[in-house]
Records
---
Amino acid sequence: MITKIKNVKRTPSGPLEHLFLENDLVLGWNLEQSADLELDGKGGLIVPAFLEPHAHLREPGQTEKEDLESGLSAATAGGYGTVVCMPNTIPVLDDPGILSSLIRKAETLGLARLRPSAALSRGQKGESLADLALLKEAGATMFTDDGRTNEDAHLLRRALEYAHSLGRVVSVHAEDASLRKDGVMNEGVVSEELGLPGNPWAAESGRVARDLELCELTGARLHIQHLSTRQALERVREAKKRGVNVTCEVCCHHLTLTDESLRGFNAVYKVAPPLRTQRDCDALLGGLLDGTVDCLATDHAPHTLAEKERDLLEAPFGIGNIEVAFPLLYTRLVLEKGLSLERLIHLMTEGVSRVLGWPPSTLEPGMPADVTVLDLETGREVKPLEFRSKAKFSPWAGETLKGWPILTLVRGKVAHQI
Amino acid sequence: MKHLLDFDDWNRGELESILETSNMMEQVLERPIKKVPALQGFTICTAFFENSTRTKVSFELAARRMSADVVSFASGASSLSKGESLRDTLETLKAMRMDCFIVRHPASGAAHQVAKFSNSPTVNAGDGRRAHPTQALLDAYTLKKHFGKLEGLKVAIIGDVRHSRVARSNAQLLKILGADVTLCGPAPLLPRELSGMARLTTDPLEAVKGAHAVMALRIQQERLSSGFLSSLYEYRAGYQVNEKLLKGAREDAIVMHPGPMLRDLEISGTLASSGRSVILEQVENGVAVRMAVLYHLLVGKK
């Protein structure tokens, strides 16, 4: 089957072009060819579909918050073609059988591709190694105990060695639990004025420093998740200069929100690691520019509305954001702060594939037909009640953003269209 | 709709007006029949999600002296964390048509949530370690009664400042009313981030120099196991509010405590019972001040 996506641009100032797909692969550009299906890109920017390295889809076991269908649907609405889901489910994704069935289920949905991560330690308890080789065989693309922190350095070291021999990246939620304690927000002037337990920056940077040493010690591939502090960013920058084999990701909320948001006592802003200060936002943007940060992530972490309406001590941590990530970053960073559009797209496509060791994502002939068309011109309001995600609320509710995905194809089939 | 959640939305004039009304209410409490009909027909709900005897009783008395009907919702915080959301609890209470909520809760911002979900005037009786505005008001009222004014008074607050909503609310209120506040405690209990709120010092002698009032804050045993405090013995030696420390303050300085106090720990037992102590007056003034607050929120013109 030949699909023609007409009237798209490869750069904002470029000419209108037409992309041809044959079944689930890219056929070529501007071909003299008739098509079975014609889709109108309406002059939008065409990019390889975004890749999400870090999202919580809550299946199995927590499907009141989200499930594969709602989560992968939300992803396609956000312009994503592939999602790496996190293993902190119930039960934890530490069993090859569960992993396989999850992948099979996702394949039947016709939405974004699922490439699950698997637990690093059994039950994510941090006591013994999970069966990493069998999990890799079952389809695990990366190993992580995200959802928990890796308190035992010895176990993390052995896991790094083992994963390295299997050619897989280990991702870490780098926070020192003993410093973080019961902190619900960034420790600082705001947390003290609000009388809320704080999570100090050193909990992150100290643990990142430790993990960088382990990375260097083992020579393995380490990926630092949701980096949020300027201090931890600096540690990574220094380590990269020394040639340490580390990569890191930054989340869209850490680039656009600060701990001041908590003054409204709305637990929608409660997230781990917490929202930091403007200085940290600025430093992280600097990291996007100078290459210290390898890719962007959402850490899409949906919860039920009732859970997020609890008080700040009781509400669970997490922000659901996969449907608005690109428009948010395009509007706030590209339009308002001058980040280059090219760099933003790189951080959401090629940057991610390099971190995970996937083949490059381009729209050259023969490549998988995972394609997104973005409307960079039209401002649209964020309407959480219209989200595909079960978490129909958002820190950015009511804001007008540009850069909405208007067409997402996965395996050559339309998965999202406005 | 006006709430008393903290002093963020209150100006000096409004607050001084509350203190004036407190004076009138105090006079009511001196009569043989301690009742005014001002809140007759109003239903006031005390929603205490955290234990309290004195504050709860104080509010109940205040409401009843004004002829309001009072109902009490008491719940250990655990029942909420087992699933029923604060919102559901409040909507249940709201469906029973309360006119006003008085809330105490272990989480900062809970009173704001009550105000939002109940859509009724709400008084914060203490939310986490963030704010306790009626305590600050009764403390200010007590100070004003003693010294005739608040402007220019120097107040030292000594103890576990980090975990104290009394310290935060007093610092906020007294600043608005023109007084000078110094917060003092051992370093782990004195967050540097509060320097925008008041002067900070770890030296009690420096804190009490020239002070009109020295307020002692309660020390909680659990601070020992969580690394905030070395020992009660060491705390007592360094920070106890006692006769010796008071020598560094003004001769006419008064001694305060929000209660409940642990005699001979944060405050010397004899000092607490001495003529300089206004601790029982604070409690007495508490009812009058709370009457004034309820009056202002439910009846009084702004």
Note: The mean pLDDT of chain B is 93.
---
Amino acid sequence: MDNLQLSSDADLLTRLLAGDERAFVALYDRLKSGIFRYAFYMTSSKTAAEEVTQEVFITLLKEGRSYRQTRGDVGAFAFGIARNFVHRIERRERPYLPLPVHDSPLENLASTLVAHSEDLSGQMIRDEVAGRVQAAIASLPDHYRQAVVLCDLCELSYEEAAARLHCAVGTIRSRLNRAHAILAQKLEPLRRGADIRSTGTEGCLT
Amino acid sequence: MTCQELNLHLDNYVRKESTAESDGDAITAHLSTCSDCRRLFEERNELERSLQFVRDSAPRSSEELDARVLANYRRLVSEPAVAPKTILSRPAILAWTAFAAALLLGAALIMMRPKNTVTIRTQNPAPQTIATSPATSEPVRSTTSQSKPSIHARHFPKPRHQSASPDPALASAQVVRSLPEGFRSLMYCDELSCAQDMDMIRVQLPSAFVMRSGRSLPQPGGLVNADVLVGPDGIARGIRFEQ
């Protein structure tokens, strides 16, 4: 019995295309999380992220034979597919209002209440901050947003992000630097709000 | 360390990633002295904390997704294999596109090529087709016209010459051969001066002009139809009066 964990992504792709279901499951487990998170951060929607993830693997099955190892690893190939689907969803959703950060806030709130009843206010503040930061990221120009999502949220290294976006590492660095400056500017009101909140109303009343 | 250098290393420093110890010390020292950079550092630190909230708040994919993807895989694998599409590389696509464009261009050039027909306006009541000079075997379409002296031109192909002869005696004979039958030469015409295609223009001339050129007319007065061969330089080479 061969060890799938030691097989390369390219090897797994070859085997799954030949009908090896275990190879497919192994590759899916490796790539799923990254693709889902990327799609979620880009679309701010769990439903859309799942749709993208599903479509990526269907496309991988249909078009996997066109993969060439010389043009990058399988992860980059799958990322390219995911990026195309994300753009497609963005075009589709553009005429409508921006989606909320979570698909079902009430459901999330309920789960938060159950899971973090002892630290409810802290959790709500964190969720609020996360929502605002995500909205600020969504408002960035696409090339900055890609860099932030890949490096800051998906936690890829600069080299990996550069390979995914087909650009130089220096380009990623400069885009990230600029994106951070813009984000800091956009989130300045949030920081000031946090300072006021930490001070509390007592300071005003006393 | 300068502010610019600090800016380069700040992201790594905030993320506590791959910052050399010496760089870390230099950054700390710089931050203790530069208020602007300290403010920048605090902003980035705050941003990093906020990004951590975003990372923590990301949902996990559902198990239904796993089931759906696996079902898709089984369905696609069980389907009969489809012959793989022939994927053309980009250079091949470009080459085929260029070939198709060349074909289209060639077809367009062929369709736009000047036709060897001459439309002649005459005062005959009914249209008639007459033969052109021996150089062109194609028929000439004739239309009627009641108008005053008029000119109508069509492209006339170059008369077919025999091979150029160096003999001067033959050169004068070439003058005759270089014009179609029935045309009188209006200028010296040889292989050099009449080598290109000519246009034949149908004109109507006053009969007095024709008589002045020494030609007798059965009915003096009025207009006489004539065909004039004009070279690409605009100079008339020959003339033929209608019988």
Note: Chain A touches chain B through 46 residues (CB under 8 Å).
